[in-house]
Amino acid sequence: MTGPIWLQWFYVLFWIALISLMAIGGYFMFRKFLKALPKADGKSILDWQEYYIKETLHLWTDEHKALLNDLVSPVPELFRDVAKQTIAGKIGELVVKEEAKQLSQDHIIRGYILATPKRDHKFLIKKLKERNIDISPYQELLK
C-alpha cells in the first residue's frame, strides 16, 4: 500500500520546492564565491571594493550618505546593505581613479549607474526626478 494520492502529491511538491529553493540559494552563494576569488593582480572583486571604500571613507559626509541611502531605498531590505557596499565601492573607485579631493553628487550618481544592472536604472531615474536632479548629464551612462 502506497498511501493516499494527496499525500503522494504532497511529497512530490515538497521535493520540488526543496530542490528549487536549494538551487536558488546555491546560485547566490556561487556568485559570492566567484567575487571572492583572486584575479590576476592577486585581489578579488571584494578586496578591491573594500580598498576603495577605505580610501574614500573620510570623504563621505552625512549629506552624501543620505543621498546613497535614498537611492538604494527601492532595493529590498534583505539586499540593501550589500547593494550599498557594492555601490560605495564603485563610487570610491571613481574618486580614486579621478584623484578627486572631494566626493560629489556626480560621483554618487555615476557610481550608482555603473554598479547596478540596467533594469534598476528606472528606480534611479524616478528617485532623481523626486529630488529634482537633472539626469541629462547621465543619459549616455543610462543607455
Automatic annotation (TrEMBL):
Transmembrane region(s): 6-30
Protein name, as recorded: DUF2621 domain-containing protein
Keyword tags: Membrane, Transmembrane, Transmembrane helix
InterPro entries registered for this protein in UniProt: YneK
Pfam family name, one: DUF2621
Entry annotated with the keyword Transmembrane helix: yes
